């Protein structure tokens, strides 16, 4: 009795279905790898989009900062109130954008940069409110103190000089003219300092101012005329008032300059450094994300190609195995049946132990063979009986 093959232990339909299942599993693996690859690419694209959006927001933040610094400086220099409202409007937009950018930021280091930028911005905004108060105080001291007092000094001295000339007191008029010249020089130096305050120049202005004040000392005693004496007394008092007004305005002007050009400028520089570092980090992340995305696509495509090729090879191999497990036994069975049909009952029937359709066919052929053998035996016995009867 022939031994059955391993494939013969399974029915033909089972073998075919198994081959299809294996192929489908391989195709499923290809599909899973493809889906995972697409998911990875989608994640990279989402990350790239987020970083790109944040980079755009950071660029917009820099634009807002530049506009804010421009309007703040214009207010600091000119004192025009329109720049206060413009600065406040820009600061409002900048604060909202910083909050949005921080909430969308993924990288911890860049989030820390945004925290630092936000803190610097809030400090800058607080400094601006101080700058508003200082600039308004400085302008009030100039417009309500220095300017009217200086105008009064000039007008009073001019009137004293004119009346002295009318009285033909030319020496007195010359002395008053010298005082007027010193007062005008002091006013000029004072205005220059207030517009461009520099502590290094303060001593020079103080010296010019002190000289002007000193030159007016004792001026009332030079006149007997009540009108000129009254004006001279007023000049003497206003000279001291002008010096006091300038001192107060100089303090405010220096405070404005220090706050705007040192403190606030320093915060702006630190902000710019953090913004620049954030932008550089974002650019590097965009380049790295793009590289990883391209690498993932290349790897996934190559893996899919290799697995698809393996699936095709394994599919063909299974098809060959299944076909061979069917056609081989069928051919052997055909040969056995042909031999039996030719009267050779000594042939061995193959695949008798198979549990598939071939095995069932083999068992039927085995019955056919046994019947043929039995028929030959019976025919031989009958011939022997007839031969015995004939001899009897």
Question: What do you see in this structure?
Answer:
There is one protein chain. The protein has 392 residues and is an all-alpha fold. It has helices at 12-78, 82-104, 108-166, 170-195, 199-216, 226-341, 357-391. The radius of gyration is 55 Å and the shape is rod-shaped.
Question: Could you give the topology of this structure?
Answer:
Blueprint: H1 12-78, H2 82-104, H3 108-166, H4 170-195, H5 199-216, H6 226-341, H7 357-391
Helix pairs in contact: 1-2, 1-6, 2-3, 3-4, 3-6, 4-5, 4-6, 5-6, 6-7
- Rounded to the nearest angstrom, the distance between the terminal CA atoms is 43 Å
Rg, nearest Å: 55 Å
Helical run tally: 7
Q: Given the C-alpha coordinates, what overall shape results? A: rod-shaped
- How many beta-strand elements? 0
Order of helices and strands: HHHHHHH
Structural class: mainly alpha
Average of the residue pLDDT scores: 85
Major sheet attributes = none
Fraction of residues in β-strands: under 5%
What helical percentage do the residues reach?
over 70%
Low-confidence stretches: none
